[in-house]
Automatic annotation (TrEMBL):
Gene Ontology molecular function terms on file: flavin adenine dinucleotide binding; oxidoreductase activity, acting on the CH-NH group of donors; tRNA (5-methylaminomethyl-2-thiouridylate)(34)-methyltransferase activity
Known EC number: 2.1.1.61, 1.5.-.-
Region (tRNA (mnm(5)s(2)U34)-methyltransferase): 1-243
Name used for this protein in its record: tRNA 5-methylaminomethyl-2-thiouridine biosynthesis bifunctional protein MnmC
């Protein structure tokens, strides 16, 4: 992504496809995406059979993982075949299939669907993939499929960049792509070295090709390779196993029995999460999907009672004029959140769209520069005129803006409640953490009454109260007060979408519209403030003149709510393990906090990433981004 940051390209060029006799062919490389005879059967023979996937899937234990890596996603046929095999194998409860793939020229959604229509037996899986297929934006995309049992990590961009940015170890490799003679860049020695980097002793590999250059490169990288009979008209293909050092080729290279997981190889972990806001509950949900036993505690009487307790919240981010790492994270988080919330539509998630308006001259110039500097897909965002903005919002809008069609608003407390509904999750309300200890290889927390909870791992998601749980004066986190105002629907012209400017205004729900929020530094007043209410109302009237049917008087009582967000010195979130210097001789707990006012946008992706880290699974964030989230950057400077 570094090259994209330099030239400010955000979108990625799609594959150039020509269809011949119903089969897609790359016009760039002059090769077909799959066999004209029977692409699905070829995939099953080459990749599934020669990696012994069915047998290995069946041998997995509860809570374990299996990682397949692939060198070219293409139409997704190999992924769909592996997913179908995973389902048919009835893998253990809580086991997770990870599929990691890179693709420099991804198919458009229309081309993807046209290819999938060729395989009716994969229709249900193909439709779920199509519904979650990422925008054509460069970088890492994590797709959570099959109720969390399957996780697809797609890197859109150059293969070498992908292998450098992705953190994982494969159990099996699908070395796919076009013929080496037609697409030599895919088979350079650097890529084979990257395959070696992401393998471990016993990792299996299979590839369509039998080209000697490829075989020799894999052997030099430590793979024990052999030529085996190919599929159909292809006389030979390659299969092998990673040994960790160069070896001579052998006639047959079966997957050794040591690859099959042992019953006690990956015992299910247990985790305590302190904090039942949007971050803590989404992390709990994420871990529970992977078979982890989770206990969530919160000092409040119900989940979503702190900063996550507003009646409504908007799903939006403010993207930078320059495509910096911060902007890359914000965009990735937004797109992941849109996919993540989709199953909760009309329950806790309402995809009304979000309109960001140029509420001032300075903001108008900023929008203008943003659009000139970047090339976001129109399906992510598009500029709109005042007339178009007014039509989208259903209320008069005097300014131009940016339209995010796939965003919307949520009910945060209901979201938190929904995410705790899992048999692997237990919730302890009104639990005040008094002590934290690490004894006999486990974390122990206790409340003032002496109720002790024990788990293998501990994650602190306590929002603005995080300082109370950390070593005294060692970390710099700060609470920021935010007050929202509820306006009676009868006194306002409610918009049909979320409208954002120097405030945001949500569509009406249960007779009220929510607007806000203030950003009150150095103010610890937990009570509603008349000044904050008037600040919200005044900013809303400036942003949307005429939005009120009648102007509220300054002394008119208004309802609202005060919450405290947790933020950091650089206003970037924190996700990772605390430093060892504060926990000598023992593991450190994990931290997920500092999301500020963008918790609804950032929490799904950061919860996904932190769950990856805790369970030792492939990571959903590129290394260049994850290193920027480490907690140690928030240590107080001596």
């Amino acid at each position: 992504m570094s090259s994209q940051g330099a030239n400010r390209r955000v979108s990625i060029a799609p594959a150039s496809i020509a269809w011949h006799d119903g089969v897609p062919e790359s016009t760039d490389f002059g090769d077909v995406y799959f066999s004209r005879d029977n692409g699905l059967e070829e995939t099953r023979y080459v990749f599934l059979q020669h990696n012994r996937l069915d047998e290995r899937f069946r041998a997995l234990c509860d809570g374990s993982q299996f990682v397949i890596a692939e060198s070219g996603f293409g139409t997704g046929l190999n992924f769909l075949a592996a997913w179908q095999c995973w389902r048919d194998s009835n893998a253990a409860d809580g086991a997770t299939l990870h599929f990691v793939s890179v693709e420099k020229f991804p198919l458009t959604p229309d081309d993807l669907k046209q290819a999938h229509d060729l395989w009716p037996e994969l229709a249900d899986l193909a439709q779920e993939l199509q519904a979650n297929y990422p925008e054509l934006v460069g970088g890492v995309h994590r797709l959570v499929l099959d109720g969390g049992r399957v996780r697809l990590t797609l890197f859109f961009g150059d293969a070498l960049d992908g292998w450098q940015e992705l953190e994982f170890k494969a159990d099996a490799w699908f070395l796919d792509g076009f013929a080496p003679s037609l697409n030599p860049q895919l088979w350079v020695d650097d890529v084979v070295s990257a395959v070696q980097k992401h393998s471990k002793p016993g990792t299996s590999v299979a590839t369509f090709t039998a080209v000697g250059r490829v075989r020799r490169a894999l052997i030099a990288a430590g793979f024990d390779m052999a030529k085996v009979p190919g599929y159909g008209r292809k006389r030979e293909m390659l299969a092998g196993t990673f040994k960790g050092n160069p070896t001579s080729p052998t006639e047959t290279v079966p997957v050794p029995d040591t690859l099959l997981p042992q019953p006690d190889q990956q015992p299910a972990k247990s985790v305590i999460i302190v904090g039942a806001g949007v971050a803590g509950t989404q992390l709990a949900h994420n871990l529970a999907q992977r078979g982890v036993r989770v206990t969530v505690v919160d000092s409040a009487s119900k989940p979503g009672s702190g900063a996550s307790g507003n009646l409504q919240g908007a799903l939006y981010v403010k993207l930078g004029v320059d495509y910096s790492p911060q902007t890359q994270l914000a965009l990735s988080a937004l797109l992941h959140a849109q996919r993540s919330y989709a199953p909760l539509e009309h329950n806790a998630w309402f995809p009304s769209g979000v309109l960001q308006i140029a509420y001032s001259e300075a903001e108008r110039l900023r929008h203008q520069k943003f659009l000139a500097n970047n090339d976001y897909p129109r399906s992510v965002l598009r500029p709109v005129t005042p007339e178009q903005a007014s039509k989208l919002a259903g209320v008069p809008v005097a300014q131009s803006g940016l339209w995010f069609a796939n965003s919307g608003w949520l009910k945060p407390a209901r979201l938190c409640e929904q995410y705790l509904k899992n048999r692997h999750i237990s919730f302890q309300a009104s639990y005040h953490v008094h002590t934290i200890d690490y004894l006999d290889g486990q974390w122990r927390i206790a409340d003032p009454q002496g109720q002790v909870l024990v788990a293998d791992e501990l994650v602190l998601c306590a929002g603005h109260r995080i300082q109370e749980l950390l070593p005294k004066d060692q970390y710099r986190f700060k609470p920021i007060r935010g007050q929202v105002t509820l306006v009676d629907e009868e006194s306002i012209n409610p918009p049909s979408c979320v409208v954002c400017g120097n405030r945001y205004l949500n569509p009406a729900d249960q007779g009220t519209c929510l607007t806000g929020a203030t950003f009150d530094l150095r103010d610890d007043n937990p009570e509603l403030s008349a000044g904050s209410q008037q600040e919200n109302i005044g900013s809303l009237m400036d942003m949307l003149p005429g939005v009120f049917k009648r102007s509220p008087s300054p002394d008119e009582p208004l309802s609202g709510r005060v919450g405290f967000r947790c933020t950091t010195h650089d206003y970037q979130p924190v996700a990772g393990q605390l430093g060892a210097q504060d926990y000598p001789g023992q593991p450190a707990p994990y931290l997920l906090t500092g999301l500020g006012s963008k918790g609804l946008s950032y929490a799904p992706l950061l919860a996904e990433y932190l769950a990856d880290v805790i369970t030792g699974q492939p990571q959903a964030l590129p290394i260049s981004i994850s290193r920027r989230l480490r907690p140690e950057r928030c240590r107080n400077q001596a």
